[in-house]
Amino acid sequence: MTGLARRGFLALAAAPLAAGAGRAQTPPWPNQPLRIVVPFPPGALTDVLGRMIAERLQASLGQTVVVENKPGAGTQVGAAYVAKQAADGYTLLVATSTTLGIVPALYAKPLIAVADFTGVAMLGNVTFYLVVRPDFAARSLPDLVALLRAKPDGYAYGSPGVGTAHHLLVELIKIRDKVQATHVPYQGSAKAVVDLAEGRLGFMFLDASVALPQIAAGKLRALAVTGSRRDAAMPEVPALTEIYPGLDLQAWQSIVAPAGTPAAIVERLNGDINVALRDSAFAERLRRVGVEPTPLTVAAFNDFIGRDIGRWADLVRTSGAKAE
HEC profile for 167-208? Predict the structure, then answer.
C-alpha cells in the first residue's frame, strides 16, 4: 500500500470514530431543568395542575421541573412567551381550551395561533360551578335569570379573565335568555372570589378546585355545574344541561410545547404524563380538583385540538364576545 493510499485508508477508518465521538458528546435529553409555564396566577386550577405535572415529570425524567406563572391577556402572555422559546423540550405550557380554542377567535389581533404549538398531552376535562354568595336572592339558575331579566344591567359577574370559558358560558346564557349582566374580568379567581363573597359581584363560574372549598366553608352556594351530568362531589347540584339542553361547554387542560419540538421528546413527555394520568392515586387527586383525567396519544390529542378549535370559534361567534 502506497503512503498516499495508507493515509486515505487511515482517514476513512478514523471517520466513523470521529462521528461516534461527536455523537457521544451530545448529551441525551433531558440534561438540564425544564420549565412549565402557567398562563394564570398562582393558586388557580391551571397552576395546581402545572405543579402536579411538574412533580411527576421531575420524578420520571430525573431533572428539576420549575413552574413559572405568566398571567395576562386571556392566557396570551404566557402562551406567547412559550411560543418564542427554543423547540427543544425544555419549555412547556399548560394550555387550556381558552388558549387554543377561544383566544384565536375572540381577539381581533391574537398574540398566538394554534400553529405556534405542538400538542404534548391532554390532561383532562374540567368542571365549573356557577356560584353565588349564601344570602343571594337566587336559589337556582332559573331564579338568577329571572333576577337579571327584572333588573337589566343591575348585576355584575366575574371571570378569571376575558376569553376564558367561564366568561363565555355567561355570555351564552345571556344570549339564550336575552338578559344583561356586566362582565368584570380578573387575572385569575383569587380576588374575584373575595369580591363575590363580599357582594361586589352577583355570580360567576369557578373551577371546582376553587369553588368546592368555598362551598364547603359556607362562603359560596352552587346553582349549577357544567358538563352533561351532575358532579359526584355535589350530586344535589343540577347539571347545566338539565336547564339548557345542548349547552355542554366542556373546558379542558393540556400540555403543549413550541412548534417544531422533536417528535421523540414529545412522545417521551406524552408517555410519562399518561402514566401519571393512569395512576389511580394521581387520577383521584385530579378528580378532587375537578379534572377528569383523559390520557390520549400525541396523534389523538393533536387531532382533538384540530376538531375542537372549530367548536369554540363557533361558540365565540354565537356569544358575540370580542376582545382587543
Answer: HHHHHHHHHHHCCCCEEEECCCCHHHHHHHHCCCCCEEEEEH
